[in-house]
UniProtKB/TrEMBL annotation:
InterPro entries hit by this protein: UTP_pyrophosphatase-like, YgjP-like_metallopeptidase
Protein name listed in UniProt: M48 family metallopeptidase
Gene3D superfamilies (UniProt xref): Metalloproteases ('zincins'), catalytic domain (3.30.2010.10)
Domain YgjP-like metallopeptidase: 21-224
A Pfam family that the UniProt record links to this protein: YgjP-like
CDD domains found in the cross-reference section: M48_yhfN_like
Source organism: Marinitoga aeolica
Highest taxon in the source lineage: Bacteria
Taxon lineage: Bacteria, Thermotogati, Thermotogota, Thermotogae, Petrotogales
Signal peptide interval: none
């Protein structure tokens, strides 16, 4: 974590260096400032770039509305595959599932008020669902795109929805399971496309559009709704 101190606020930011040719700044919905820079640029040059953009960064950060953290209380809404479900706690064997318009936690009555246990159960359920659905969609799209990938990792990534390594190993943020299926498919296609195109130039997006012609809509959806994909 890097810090640029200004008269108004301290700007904390992370630097991601790659083979790109230009500098860019991304301000995520949670307030994280990500600076993407060419490998050859010095930290001084990057910091100067951020200093020059400080007014714009501050204006963006001050307009971000904090998202209320989950309390894991009955009646609270949880997002899954693009739909909100109300949480209910029922007595029974330990488990989490969805029925009608509800996401339920089943456990012994003595633990109904154990928030940490309920959070742990829901996180585990979401991660298992993400692993199952992501692998299913990967298998489907890899066949029609005629691509082979390496290992698959389902993670709680802080700055990305997905990534593809130089060895074609794929990583996905388990939180994408909260998005509509079509948006999940976009992330799948996006990362598979990086097996052939290790960049975000026109040829990459042209290739993505062959299998996800509404990719611009999906990108916009994540920009606008990514802040709500929280647990």
């Amino acid at each position: 974590m890097n810090i640029l101190r200004t008269e108004i606020m301290d700007i904390k930011y992370d630097i991601i260096k790659s083979k790109r040719k230009s500098l860019s700044i991304t301000i995520e919905n949670n307030g994280n400032v990500i600076v993407r820079a060419p490998k050859f640029l010095s930290d001084y040059e990057i910091k100067k770039f951020i200093f020059d953009k400080r007014k714009w960064i501050i204006s963006k950060l001050t307009n971000i509305k904090p998202i209320k953290e989950k309390e894991y209380r009955d009646g609270e809404k949880f997002l899954y595959l693009g739909k909100y479900y109300k949480l209910i706690t029922i007595e029974g064997n330990y488990g989490v599932g969805i029925q009608n318009d509800f996401i339920y936690i089943s456990l012994k009555k003595d633990f109904f008020d154990n928030i940490s246990l309920k959070k742990e159960m829901i996180l585990k359920w979401y991660k298992n669902e993400a692993k199952k659905i992501i692998n299913e969609r990967l298998e489907y799209y890899s066949k029609i795109m005629n691509l082979k990938y390496g290992k698959v990792y389902i993670r709680d990534q802080k700055t990305r929805w997905g990534s593809c390594s130089g060895k074609n190993n794929l990583s996905f943020n388990f939180r994408i399971i909260m998005a509509p299926m079509r948006k999940i498919d976009y992330i799948i296609v996006h990362e598979l496309a990086h097996i052939l195109h290790k960049h975000h130039q026109k040829s990459f997006w042209d290739y993505v559009s062959k299998y996800c012609d509404d990719y611009l809509e999906s990108r916009k959806w994540f920009r606008e709704n990514g802040k709500y994909l929280i647990l």
